[in-house]
Amino acid sequence: MKHGIFSNFKGDLFGGLTAGIVALPLALAFGIQAFGGIDAPEASSMGALAGLVGATLLGMFASIFGGTHSQISGPTGPMTVITAGLISASWTASNGNFSSVLIAMSLAGLFCGLFQILFGILKIGKYVRYIPYPVLSGFMSGIGVIIILQQIYPLVGQKSPVLVVDMVTGLSTIAKAGISWQALGLGLATIAIIIAMPKISKKVPSTLVALIGVTIISLLCSIEEKLTIGEIPTGLPMPFFAKGLDLSNVDWAQVLKASVIPGLTLAGLGSIDTLLTSVVADNITRTKHNSNKELIGQGIGNAIAGLFCGIAGAGATMRTVVNVKSGGRTQLSGVMHSLLLLSILLGLGALVRYVPLAVLAGILITVGYGIIDFKGFRDLNKIPRSDAFVLITVFIVTVFVDLLTAVGIGMVMACVFFMKHAGDMLERNYSTAEISEFDKENPWPDETTMPEELKGKVYVQRLNGPVFFGSITKFQEVMHDVPTDAKIVIIRMRYVAYLDQSGVYAFESAIKDLQANGATVLMTIVQPQAMSKLTALNIIPGLIPEDHVFPTFEACTTWLRNNAQ
Question: What is the pTM for the complete model shown?
Answer without folding.
Answer: 0.67
